[in-house]
Design a protein that fits this description.
This protein is mainly alpha-helical. It has eight helices and four strands. Strand 1 and strand 2 form a beta hairpin. Helix 2 packs antiparallel against helix 3. The two termini are about 25 Å apart.
């Protein structure tokens, strides 16, 4: 079969174009350190890389959720510790008030100090985070946890007893909050009982020797101790959640490390092999170009 000059030229052009394309692709791979530039380069590996990348995106979101939850838990823990300290101050004053040696004026002065602590406890229950959400209001985070009716002199629960949850690992949800309902009870008995006692102690007609007053103080101490125990339990619970978040963070980081290793093995370029391929493509392209020039120089006239 006779091969014409145009066929030879076309074959040489195709060979040079193919070598140039492979060389260009290889140089792009070396520039980006990526073996897979298009899914068609390695369909199976491309699918696996996409799966790993999706999992990495999930792990990044889990890390953000853990940081947010941990921050909220720390804020709640700090407020509950302050609540615990305030309750202990209340208990000390109540024990002092109940010793039977105080005058009506002494009890009224103690009531003034107890009233300040009462307001402090109320403010701790209605603390907000940096986004303005009430931390102890359950899922009603735009509503104060507790409210006070000045007309009836009573406290009431305006949040609920439900927990907000956040995803912190694959299939793992953690509660973001402690509720005021779990600390003060649905009837907010401790604060209401304290308010009633303060009204008694601040009454100008108070008889400090009245056994009923001492009994009211004693009952208040019992209710306070019960609420304080729940506060300590909530602090312990928050500490347990923080420990769990730390373990989950370590676990997620280990998974992420494995994912990055797998992704690197699948997609990163082997520079040693790429350097050999680069030399081969350059040699092939150079040989094709020289052959093309030699063939173009050949003609019958040069042989005459």
């Amino acid at each position: 079969m006779r091969i014409t000059n145009s066929q030879i030229t076309a074959m040489m052009h195709n060979s040079m174009n193919a070598s140039s394309a492979e060389l260009s692709k290889l140089m792009q791979q070396m520039a980006t350190s990526q073996r897979i530039l298009l899914p068609s380069d390695d369909p199976i590996a491309s699918v696996r890389v996409l799966r790993v990348q999706r999992e990495e995106a999930s792990l990044e979101q889990y890390a953000k959720n853990i940081a947010n939850v941990s921050g909220n838990l720390s804020t709640q823990e700090a407020n509950l510790k302050s609540t615990s300290d305030a309750m202990l101050n209340v208990r000390d004053l109540l024990i002092w008030a109940g010793n039977g040696a105080n005058t009506s004026e002494d009890l009224a002065a103690m009531a003034g100090e107890l009233s300040i602590i009462e307001d402090t406890l109320f403010s701790f229950a209605n603390v907000r985070d940096e986004e303005g959400r009430y931390l102890f209001s359950g899922t009603l985070s735009d509503t104060p946890a507790l409210s006070f009716d000045a007309a009836t002199q009573t406290y009431s629960l305006t949040g609920n007893d439900k927990h907000r949850q956040a995803a912190v690992a694959n299939g793992v949800l953690v509660d973001e909050n402690v509720t005021a309902a779990s600390v003060y009870g649905t009837g907010v008995d401790m604060l209401n009982q304290l308010r009633g006692l303060l009204n008694t102690l601040q009454d100008p007609a108070l008889d400090s020797s009245d056994p009923a007053v001492r009994q009211q103080i004693s009952d208040m101490i019992d209710t306070l101790d019960d609420s304080h125990g729940r506060v300590l339990g909530a602090i312990t619970e928050l500490g347990g959640r923080q420990n769990a978040l730390t373990l989950l963070t370590d676990s997620n980081e280990e998974v992420s490390l494995v994912n990055r290793k797998i992704e690197g093995e699948l997609s990163q370029l082997d520079y040693a092999g790429a350097s050999i391929d680069l030399n081969n493509y350059q040699l092939a392209l150079g040989a094709t170009q020289k052959t093309y020039l030699k063939i173009n120089e050949m003609s019958l006239f040069s042989l005459l």
